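anyone seen this seq b4? input:
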Amino acid sequence: MQLSEAKEKYIQTWGTFATNWGINRTMAQVHALLLASGKPLSTDEVMEQLEISRGNANMNLRALMDWGIVKKEFVKGDRKEYFVAERDVWFLFKQITKRT
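predicted toks r here
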């Protein structure tokens, strides 16, 4: 299995699995994409990689920030907003269980 195939499978699986916690599938896929990415991603990159609309990407990124499991990160010399996912599993668990 190629890395890109494994990443795609992870994103799809996380999207399906997270619906059991009351998180919508797209929100979970955005989160999984950010977790699997080795670098901060812009809204445009999220849109492109998941093939979703700008509104859908923005809405889900904001929701993930409200949950406290995604934060903005600024990239020097670039005016775009970039996003990274919290990687501490225990922190993620606490944040998700508080919301469900």
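The CA atoms of residues 8 and 33 lie 9 Å apart. The mean pLDDT is 88. kinda curious what u guys think
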